[in-house]
Amino acid sequence: MHPSFVDAGAHLRTTTLDGKALGYPPARLSAGTTYGDSFNAVGAKSCVLTASTGTATGAPTAQKCTASLESAPTGTSPSWVAVDGSAVFVDGDKKSARRNVDLTRLPSGHALLRVKVVAELTGGTTPTQDVAAAVVLAGFSTLPA
Prior knowledge:
145 residues; mainly beta; 1 helix; elongated
């Protein structure tokens, strides 16, 4: 039997080495842009980015959330760039969406990823939206047995 059928953990990763979830933790956001913690994606050839929303407060007339990935080289104060084709769009309360992302075309030397979240809230009184995003890295090569 192929190892991928009995040891999916060798091919997928959802946490950092210190146990933090990859992505953007659940949070109540006002309109604006925010970023998740960076994480190392060395060896991953692809990933799935999933974004979800909870209930909005403050009675907005419309709410949208866009989650996307950015990449950067390692080092202090890296310069972040958008990962092409990684945007996930979610409209409304209690919705989710996902996107498969090819990581083989990241710029040379880019080993770090982070999630960028843009919350758009229209109308209402000081509206907020519950938002979360998760990343599952995949495509790792396995060591021979």
